[in-house]
Amino acid sequence: MKTAKLAFGSEIIVRGMAFREGCWVIAAEGQGTRSCPGCGETSRSRHSWHVRRLQDLPIQGVSVTLELRSGRWKCRNEQCARKTFAEKLSIALPFARKTRRVGELVRLFGHAAGGRVSERLLAGLGIPISDSAVLRQLKSHVRNHRETKPLRAIAIDDWSWRKGSAYGTIIVDLERRTVADVLKTRSAQATADWLNQHPGTDIVSRDRCGLYAQGIRKGAPSAKQVADRFHLMQNLRENIEREMTSVSRCAGRSRLPAVAGDRHKAARRQGRLARQALFVNAKRMHAAGRTFGDIAAETGVGRRTVAKWIAQDDLPDRQRSTIKQSSRLYFQDFLARRWAAGDRVGPRLFHDIRARGYVGSLSHLQRLLSTWRKAVQTQEPPPLKKIDSLGEGRAIDPATGWQISPMVAASLCMKPTSMLTP
Hints:
Blueprint lengths: L1 H7 L3 E9 L2 E8 L15 E14 L2 E13 L9 E3 L13 H14 L1 H10 L6 H14 L8 E10 L3 E8 L4 E6 L4 H10 L5 E4 L3 H10 L4 E4 L1 H25 L9 H25 L4 H8 L3 H8 L21 H9 L5 H10 L6 H16 L7 H5 L16 H9 L8
Parallel strand pairs: 2-4, 6-9, 9-10
Antiparallel strand pairs: 1-2, 3-4, 4-5, 6-7, 7-8
Helix pairs in contact: 2-3, 2-4, 3-4, 5-6, 7-15, 8-9, 9-10
């Protein structure tokens, strides 16, 4: 009992403790303040007793209820409007059903996890409480601690009750970095009514929503409306991406030369350079007296390939496999004659070589024809001077030689300078 008395403070005298209905029940008597809240005079005349049942912190995961016997007193001041008043206790708010420390714990859980999640977590800790009670605790704390100072700079944005159908409005105090209010609806009239109730607003940061602009003009006509930073950056990124996309489309219509950084060609070029480096390394190791087996084990190249490399002065080209009828190159001579004659329609050429035994796909054939079309396009000058001044309308990565897509270019423009490489 001494431990319980120290935990509750000197204003509580613990009389007993029992385990009833799966819950620890602590019987106690209050020794709180007896000053009248109306006139402040201390009373010595007891009117009656009443019992308050307060939920308190659990003991070893078991719920605890505090049965607190508190007094009611008479006010002897004839000029006071109050006749009786209840004894004040610091461990709980008036009319509350839980102690202050439980209320603070519930508020912290609700603020971090929300109503339903907090209900499940607190039940596991031995504090049974409903999700609606968690939300009521949050709202009560906000009402009691809300600042009454005028709001000079605010931000207005919408939030979704249900995405695509129901939206509300959130208002943030930019100077104190706190949420000033949350409205249930998203409308110009609700925004105007709120601003009329909170005069003194000089700056309003908002998105591009026309409803908020109209509501601000009605509720705070003298306030300066500014676009928030998020939407400014978003609009900049969208415009960059849209501009580069339109340039790329114009480049395609103007029959510009093929992009120099073709990914397949770049991969083949890198593979050729890697084989050349292995070839030079193998020749150097052989000149140093290393055997074919040692060179093959260190470079990862087959022993027969090493022997072939040592016998030659230059790196030999890779031998192509035998061309089959599934390959477009099997009919390359026939296709070249038809192409030179002016027949350049892909589906028609596909039908002709299918009749001659081609078993590949149309997309496979179109890849060959696209390279021939690009070769023809390089011989024609671009008619659009504007695109030509933009570097053929295409952004090329100097490190890889590949074309930069509009989305990647827009994201690069939005990145901080410190995150960009040379």
